[in-house]
Amino acid sequence: MVAPHRTAIAAGAVEDAVRRALAEDRAEDDVTTRWAVPDGTRAQARVVARQDGVIAGTAIPAEVYRQLGGGDIVVTGHVQDGDRVRAGQDLLTLAGPAREVITGERTALNFLQRMSGIATAAAAFAQAVTGLPVRILDTRKTAPGLRALDKAAVVAGGVRNHRLDLAAMVLLKENHIAAAGGVSAAIAAVRARNTQGIAVEVEVESTAQAIEALHAEVEWIMLDNMSIEEMRYIVALRGTEGPRLEASGNITLSTVRSVARTGVDAISVGGITHSAPAFDLSLLLAPMTLAGESPRAAADGRPAQRFGRTTGKRTVRRG
What we know:
- This protein is an alpha/beta fold.
- The chain has eleven helices and 13 strands.
């Protein structure tokens, strides 16, 4: 089992992402909730996992409700980023004004579902190569504007971040190489300007290109969409010293262990961030205290109302 990986997301990134999401949802003008739910109604709610997996984004709901309710909603976390959870497990509980709880529900769940889905996918890839001397890496194939959150979710799942942005390292891909006039020409052009000593990686699509890159002595070589036999051959050519080798391109859970056994140092998987299924969660609203009324007895037999993603036929789905 992959150990939990605690993550810290820059506070500014969380605050900005939540602000944009609430504005996109026009949370200040939730006509349905404002008209249907009496002002002053209090509620308790819990966020429940509907599947097994790895959780990420646990700091987001508190920020959602801070911006919505100004501190009137108390969010209590029962798990941390990187924790493995089971279906039916409570992840968070909330208490406060019912209107704000319901208005912020979709925004809070959207972040939790996306980030936990990424963390769960990352954990599956990390688990698939257990015992082998290889690292799984993410890519820049993240949701626009949400890279800090996506990459934090990757780490929560036990996978390493690779290149955070275009300035983090030089990565010469096929279009750079084509425009520069070849692998050697592209590397030479970079070397002439790389006064900061930034690490250089070059993407190659054939053994001939790989040999050219090996002779150029770059820090990383990315083996793009190569066969197992080609990768083994290049690993053997590289020997015990030389650039680190990264395999990439259409690598799945069913193939990643075979790729790892070729001897490459790293495997990058874009699908962890761009194709991870959303994690299945629900926000369950407990019996409420209506404005001007006493609380309903817990034993009145009425079930909690369900909101969010579930598979039950009787579940009320919200947009």
